[in-house]
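Archive entry. Fields below.
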Amino acid sequence: MNKEYSGSGDPAKSLELLWRRRPEPTRGPKPALTVEGIVEAALRIADAEGIAGMSMRRVADELGAGAMTLYRYFPGKAELLDVMLDTVYGELPRREVDGDWRAKLDEVARENRELYLRHPWMLQVAISRPPLGPNVMAKYEYELAAVEGIGLTDIEMDDTVALVNGYVHGAVRTAVEARQVIQRSGMTDKEWWLAHVPHLDQIGDTKNYPLASRVGTAVGNEFDAPYDSDHAFEYGLERVLDGVSALVEKRSRPKP
Amino acid sequence: MNKEYSGSGDPAKSLELLWRRRPEPTRGPKPALTVEGIVEAALRIADAEGIAGMSMRRVADELGAGAMTLYRYFPGKAELLDVMLDTVYGELPRREVDGDWRAKLDEVARENRELYLRHPWMLQVAISRPPLGPNVMAKYEYELAAVEGIGLTDIEMDDTVALVNGYVHGAVRTAVEARQVIQRSGMTDKEWWLAHVPHLDQIGDTKNYPLASRVGTAVGNEFDAPYDSDHAFEYGLERVLDGVSALVEKRSRPKP
DNA sequence: ACCTAACTGAGTACACTGTACGAAGTAACC
DNA sequence: GGTTACTTCGTACAGTGTACTCAGTTAGGT
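PREDICTED_STRUCTURE:
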């Protein structure tokens, strides 16, 4: 199975759903479900069982409805995912930060990290074209505000926000995958490693990879069984922000 | 559908496959297929049609065999993916670079980028526990060599390599998704945007998102229809390496 | 009061997926 | 020739998203 895709159907229909501008029907029976109810159920399932568990049948079951009923409310699964995404982006606190751009970008990174950790299924949805709902818009606005007025061009502002978001996405993805593989395999990283080492020693000459052996061992000793994702996140975020800092400083004193 | 998972079955069996140490059978009919042949066919399909197209039946068809035949050579799809991964890592040129650590890390980033672009399906395989084959080992060794002897601790070396790899992974994923969504939807980014704007204007007050509007427009004007992934890659890589540079310099003059 | 148009819910069907199971065939050893 | 190890592969199962179809329900118009 590969990635889920956020929708790319009829824009009018998608935006109607995202902004809750669906004209309510005048005739016929009252709808038994609501868009909100379906999204809530879908989120409950996705949070608990991952995106793989969130099938249309499963969501419908959760609501006591037939599978095809959901297609009265959403054109397809992709559009349901779109609304789910915009909904969870609404959970971002978007706190006001007293401080410079770095403090603000740091907050952006941490808020996004929390969100991904709370809804890991988000990491498996490809959103190259974001659902243009109210919360996605607010998120972009908030993130740009962190780097507004510090001497960057508009393009650089967008690049910087994308860089930080991309970094967080990747870091959390790695951490979540590490967490999930422990559950799925019933093995900690250390156990997994210890199960491989004897076979590796027998098969390949470990002496061919001196650096890998040395550093691998050091990493294994320092961060025991559970891969230390907090450490990796802090290290990487610091490097990324240092990199942005170098650019900001260059822009603030143009030429010597 | 969610991600594919690289295998976590029997270590002995997996390593045998990766290092080609399968004892060849003495009795019975000669096998009609080979591990190499299956991997080749699977790679051909995955490269051309993506990971979603690479089903066991599809690979077997390509080889003129029954679907279940593949399970004589691989315990399951996960193990086939493992061998596919290690195989393509073997394509990395791992060039010797004359220059400092930055030039070397830059080369690492670019080589990995090329590999991902050539085999985009790699981005949809979760490899929290890498297949410990010869090429994965060589890759890790090569990458560590870039940051050896510049004053970083072993842990920092691993963190740095992981940071660069993570950055490249994320950047290429974004670029590939952008490329694929154009194919899938038959719409360029600009067309997609223009299809949404009138509805957005009608529904939500664009005035609530001044920064998003301004920067969004600037980005749209600067990088036309196809999302300029080259630009984003170069920008981000420079920031990341600048960030690493700040650390290296701090380590090289310990305290003032 | 009644008809009709609009609407909802849901059953069935289709073409897929990975893989467990087991039947049937083949080749090398005793 | 018999046994044993080994092969290929058809069938089956429980899933998936969703197109199509049809029966049932309700509000508006007459």
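CURATOR_NOTE: The first helix of chain B runs from residue 11 to 18.
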